[in-house]
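user:
I keep going back and forth on a fold encoding question. Separate attempts, laid side by side, tell us more than any discussion would. Would you put together a sequence-and-structure record for a protein of your own picking? Write it directly below this note and I will take it from there.

assistant:
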Amino acid sequence: LAGKDASVPVRRAALAALGVKASKEEAALLAEAAEDKEPRIRSLALLGLGLSRQGREILTRHLQAKSEESQGVRCHAALALGLLGEEASAPALVEALDDKVVDVGCMAALSLGRFPAFAKGVEALSRSSKNLKRHTELRCYALVGLGLTGAAGTLPVLETGLGSKDETLKAFSATGLGLSGAPGAAKPLLSS
């Protein structure tokens, strides 16, 4: 991949470009790069696998790797699972909502937005968005993920966020409502 001796920026650019239309052979190169010693290389290799819609097992393993020294790699694994678009990825993303690293949970919340038919994911996003004991950032991303699902019955949860005293939570709730595309979503946005 742009030669093992190439600089990290050159290798990263090669990985990013490769993922968009990777063949099986190229996906094998991405899988190999996902094990690179450089975290930035691993991150982009994982995103490349997600874009190529290949490598669910590798992506899940990196997401769940608590020993991974770079939380960015785990965040990229969560995003890549969403890009992959396989509903079989959703249970690992639901589990990641409870990760000790808030950013990993946030990226999992965004990715879960890609799976509106996965009821357990929609329920987990709804619970995470309303749980006052959760980190505010995770609650915010759960609201956006919930909006991305466009799933039936999510409007009341998203509307509740508009009434929050926390301006950030309000803003993310409005974003979730806007992204939902659900009939009636514009009304609470325009009246808030």
Summary: The chain has a mean pLDDT of 86. The first helix runs from residue 8 to 19. The two ends are 51 Å apart (CA to CA). Residues 54 and 84 are 7 Å apart (CA to CA).
